[in-house]
Write a structure and sequence with these properties.
- This protein is an all-alpha fold and 417 residues long.
- 80% of the residues lie in helices and 0% in strands.
- The protein has 15 helices and no strands.
- α1 packs antiparallel against α2, α2 crosses α7 and α5 runs antiparallel to α10.
- The C terminus is likely disordered.
Length: 417
């Protein structure tokens, strides 16, 4: 296997175990995501409540995200994953039981969505930082690319299966299948013999949080990439919140149609992740990120203008590619250049901006779709996305000059000046 192969991270046995367990768990997570969106829209018929559910799921990440990164840098990451996935199992089980017994209500959905967001405050930075612990630095682009590929393969499989499961058995079964999938990653993570390495047990958590914030503000490439992630999470990513509206009101379909839309997004995202994983170095990645954001914006315009499934699916393929190759590319650049002792906090800041800030975008998307319609709301987001891409492309020379001064990056990994 050549070193430029996107699969080179699989040489590491612990990484392979992690990938297997996380992949099956992600299938369950995507099934729950589709089933929950369909359940909310079936119970309420409200685009605003779709946005509110997304808001509550992301709000804890926005508020406590930096704390989650500090915890991931202070305590054993593998143990954190075992604890958080145990809690996800309980949350999914509660959703499943309430739905199957017909006692589910929008109040329960909002509360349990907020709980899941709180769990992910600690799960995401621990998982992302542990991922890098399992491979040598040279394999970081491959590891992140493969992780993104897995994320998007399951984004195709999970919703596709969930669409049929919901149509035949109902949403509750999807929630219970997600609970069962948590057992798989629990077992795979438990057998990984990783040195726990709690780096900062003698430091106060608040001091670690402040150190991470100072690093992000004082480091130009981190500041620029986090700003880009923030803009995209507000104006572009909330298109996912409106997919049930497109499936029902624009395409006049059902849960199967929603599954097709999510699967199309996942296929495009998979292509973007594989494009990222096969990159042998960081050279040119900054420019590729800017072009990917441009692709993202064009795809959103196509989605807004599409009246049929035949045009919507290609648009979502383009959107998925642009989404992952831009945001996962930013994640790769951030983690590859971050000092080891700061990686958990850098990841948490990235997650806070790329996921936590979507709470505002989801509310804006839900409100906009209620008053102006989903297509016009997505078109507005596409306009801002194109503006963000042009602004970032203008900043690429400054990013390259700064990265060129970072001493611990090997010369062959530096972007071309």
């Amino acid at each position: 296997m050549r070193r430029t192969s996107p699969w080179r991270a699989l040489h590491n046995r612990n990484f392979s175990w992690f990938l297997i367990g996380h992949g099956l768990s992600l299938c369950g997570s995507w099934m729950q995501s589709l089933a929950l969106a369909w359940l909310v829209y079936r119970l309420t018929g409200s685009p605003f409540l779709l946005g509110l559910v997304e808001f509550l799921a992301r709000f804890p990440i926005l508020v406590f995200g930096v704390l989650g990164g500090a915890i991931a840098d202070r305590y054993p990451r593998r143990r954190l994953l075992l604890v958080t996935h145990s809690l996800v199992l309980l949350q999914a089980s509660a959703l499943g039981i309430l739905t199957l017994t017909d006692t589910i209500s929008i109040g329960w959905i909002l509360g349990l969505s907020c709980l899941l967001g709180l769990i992910y405050v600690f799960e995401i930075p621990a998982r992302q930082a542990l991922l890098i612990d399992l491979v040598p630095r040279a394999d970081i682009p491959s590891a992140i690319g493969m992780h993104s590929s897995l994320f998007n393969v399951t984004r195709v499989i999970g919703p596709s299966v969930a669409g049929f499961v919901v149509a035949i058995y109902g949403e509750g079964v999807c929630f219970l299948l997600n609970a069962a999938s948590c057992l798989v990653i629990f077992g795979c993570v438990a057998v990984i013999p990783v040195d726990p390495r709690p780096q900062f047990t003698h430091h106060k958590t608040w001091g670690l949080m402040a150190e991470g914030l100072r690093y992000a503000w004082d480091t130009p490439h981190v500041r620029i990439l986090l700003t880009l992630a923030t803009v995209l999470s507000i104006v572009a990513l909330p298109f996912t919140t409106l997919l049930p509206v497109f499936a029902v009101d624009v395409l006049h379909g059902g849960p199967g149609s929603l599954g097709i839309l999510m699967a199309a997004t996942g296929l495009g995202a998979l292509a973007g992740a594989l494009y990222l994983a096969r990159r042998p170095t960081l050279k040119g990645l900054d420019l590729a990120i800017g072009r990917s954001v441009l692709c993202f914006g064009i795809g959103l315009f196509a989605l807004a203008a599409s009246p049929t499934m035949w045009l919507t699916v290609p648009a979502l393929l383009v959107i998925g590619f642009g989404l992952v190759s831009s945001l996962a590319g930013a994640n790769t650049l951030l983690q590859s250049l971050a000092p080891d002792h700061l990686r958990g906090r850098v990841v948490s800041l990235y997650v806070t901006m790329s996921l936590g800030m979507t709470i505002f975008g989801s509310l804006l998307a839900g409100t906009g779709a209620t008053y102006f319609g989903a297509p016009l709301t997505v078109a507005a987001g596409a306009t801002f996305t194109l503006g963000a891409s042009l602004t970032f492309l203008r900043a690429v020379p400054a990013i390259r000059r700064h990265i060129g001064r970072i001493r611990f990056v090997s010369r062959e990994e530096l972007p071309a000046a």
